[in-house]
Amino acid sequence: METFDVIEILGRKALFSNWRLAPSEVPEGLYTYDIREDGEYGVLERKVIVDHEATIVTAAPIDFPKEGFIVLDEDSSPNFWPGDKMTLQEFAQKNKK
User: Fold this and answer.
1) Least CB-packed of 6, 11, 30, 48 within 10 Å?
2) End-to-end CA distance of the chain
3) Residue 81's pLDDT band (boundaries 50, 70, 90)?
């Protein structure tokens, strides 16, 4: 089973993948968002078609401003937890409501 890096982004724990994830791969109750390559840190969006840099998976939805994206900076970019990895299923089970 594929494992993903555990990160913290926007004050929440999430999983990080350099690849796009098909909706069928993501367990029910988890949310996916994409990071667009743009500048030093990128931009978080609901879905990125061009300049896709990464996909993150969260256990709770992210509220986006009316612009529909969040510009990532030094404070809001993903913080990796070195060596901490988890499968989508483990993440879903750990965050089950």
Assistant:
1) 11
2) 23
3) confident
- Structure-token pair, residue 82: 């070195």
| Residues 6+ positions from 58 with CB-CB distance below 8 Å | 9, 12, 13, 14, 30, 31, 32, 33
Q: Which residues on neighbouring strands pair with residue 50, listed in sequence order?
A: none
Q: pLDDT tens digits, residue range 52-68?
A: 999 999 999 999 999 99
Q: Where do the structural domains in the chain lie, given as residue ranges? A: 4-94
CB 84 within 8 A of CB 52: no
Buried b (16+ CB within 10 A) or exposed e, 16-51: bbeeebeeeebeeebebbbbbeeeebbbbbeebeee
Task: Give the model's pLDDT for residue 96.
Answer: 80
